[in-house]
Specification:
By secondary structure, the protein is mainly alpha-helical. The chain is built from 11 helices and 2 strands; from the N terminus they run E-E-H-H-H-H-H-H-H-H-H-H-H.
Amino acid sequence: MPDSKTTPTGRATGRATTRAAAPATAPTARRSEATRAAILDAARERFASDGYERSTIRAIAKDAGIDPSMVMRYYGNKEGLFAAAVTIDLKMSELPAVPRDRIGATLVAHFLTLWEENEQLTALLRVGTTNAAGAERMQDIFRDQMLPVARAACPDPEQVTARAALAATQMLGLALTRYVLRMPPVTALTRDELVAWLGPTLQRYLTAPHSAWPEG
């Protein structure tokens, strides 16, 4: 029989049923969050130990103690899971103190080191070219971590966002052609040559005076 009460007028109410069912929502939500957290923890460890290419949904699910279908349910595929799990520090705080007129060359050298030493960063770039979640994650990383650098170098506060984005086009373009697509003319360039070619471009993007920019 339904769990209901009858009023003096004979009208049934579902108040008792509502009270009994409502508390079940919170435990369900907590279980869902706990499952997500377990998946992300297992994914971070697996990606760190095996790298992106060798890590599998099945292995990550096993580490998390759940069925692989649960990973797919929450994150869709390995690309979506990687984008959600990965945390990348561009180490902008570790940039050496350099004169403002050397910031372009310094950034190029800094990013070359990052791309060559951080497999996850290159993997995220690969994911970002084909996966919306990966692209959004890469955008967040560069926006949040490049903006302070651009703000410190930019002569016009209103242009900080545009200048940071333009600098990112150079760094991401270099990474894509050198470390993902491996275009021979780009991979053949030495580190010093890349700094010499791209340093002035980043320098102009970040520090060129307002008069050097076209009027809107």
